[in-house]
Amino acid sequence: MHRMIPTDLWGLTMRVLGVNGWPGASHDGAACLVVDGEVIALAEEERFTRNKHAYGEAPLNAAAHCLAEGGLTLDDIDVVAHGWDMPKLFADRGLDWFADDAETLEHLLPKALFPRTRDPRLTFVDHHVAHAASAYYLSGRDRGAILVLDGQGEDVSTTLAVGIDGEIKTLRSFTPGWSLGYFYAAVCEYAGLGSDAAGKMMGLASYGTPQDLSFGGALDFTDDGFTIGVVPPDLRSTGSTDEETATIRLWLEHLEKALPEAPNRSTRRFDPRVGRYTRVTDRDPFEYRDIAATAQAALERAVMTLVRTLLKESGETTLLVAGGVGFNATLNGKLMRMPEVRDLFVQPLAGDQGVSLGAAVRVAAEEGDRIRPMRGSVAWGPQWTPDEIRRVLEASGTAYTEPADIAAATADVLAGGGVAGWFQGRAEGGPRALGHRSMVAVPNPEGTRDRVNVRIKDREAWRPFAPSMQEEAAETLIGTTTPLPYMIVTTPVTDAGAAAMPAVVHSDRTTRPQTVSAEVDPLYHRLIGRVGEHTGTAVVLNTSFNGRDEPVVCSPRDALATFHRLPMDALALGPFLVRRPGGAVGEAGA
Fold it and tell me: Taking the model in full, what pTM does it have?
């Protein structure tokens, strides 16, 4: 089921392959194919290699998927656009970029795997420009203020910009030493969660009470932003192409002096249950909830001040957000409710997987293509036909049925207290499962949260879940009719919402909703509606279909392996339904 791109007879078709990742020195490798301004395919390398975040991996499988989806080879590609300006990254640190374009392409996309008779043009796109492009061009807005926040790009960690009539202009930026992303990562590490566990700490923060937002004088909040006192703004690492390790080390040294709690030391141990190393801490990270709450409040204060400055300097009221800090849904909810912000778009591929998309659309726009905006879905990944899925099922010896209506049959399982895997259509990009690679349940009673968190996904009991609801039910449950298709902002819940879906209401009485449109995702919309026929409310608990410390499932084989390993009740695999022999539904109330 691959899309065939028309042959370019007149030289008018522009085909751009965006990539992120580098062998041995990167994270969140991904590839994206954009043809004439339209996103044709996007995939993350971790989904294929099953190595979460794809540390040190070039996007080989992701690029192969994108080319196959378009029915293309590398000979058909006009430009390969990388979401980092690698020569600049090296030059800023007094290092020589070791490769010419041909050598670089061979490292990224070796001819042994990507046969070609010629090399496409290679373009390096500044990292924050790629992030900004992913938010601006895909938002569908002609103009808006752009905020990019992450650990760092080549030489900046925060960018304030404006997009007008297809052009992006940087207004101001902050150096890597003053990275809010690294500040938050350092507090994550201090609490024993790991520096790459920002999502966990965001969830933990709602259980705590903020204390000293300056963290012992390290953060100073100014009228137009912030300053950081523990890291030199001009910090440059030696022997490294980024300042992450040095910056986090300086933060940890300061936190150990400034905070009454000692750092939560951790080690990595092999867990035979999941066949991989997991983090083991000296203390329960829940004991660090006040520190988490303080970091979250400090982040929000700094960013909201930056946003006011950005909107004032740009004259805009539309805010477009990208960069890894953009995954902080609690922060995004606060931004959405700022009176100065009349319109908010947060790129759902806010992290570095999104710069493959941003680099591609940036180049396409510069070449004159009109970029087609996102329309409520990031399902650009691999898919399998019913016949292909059937062959996988039969080869595995797994018993299955083919109900007349897979949505109705799955809804019956959920209404009976079951938890089901939901594997349908093209895989999504980004860390959120949005109804194509999901684990779903009825969000009532509240005990469902503990069952899915602790017994099925083997994660901390305080981790929150999110709801997928028919967009028609959103006003009743969360008090808004604004489409929220990407599960990337938090909203308060109504009294009716708190009563109908307690398993997805967090301790601060907010939730991170996905509103589902019948036009964008008719099958998932129908599943939720069928559940509503049983429960009276068209909403389900939706979490990513994966086990602890694993990427979201990609293929039917991934889905089957995860289903057989975890105590779920059923798996809707395309049009087929797999039930666990004997059922686990009876455990729901245990």
Answer: 0.95
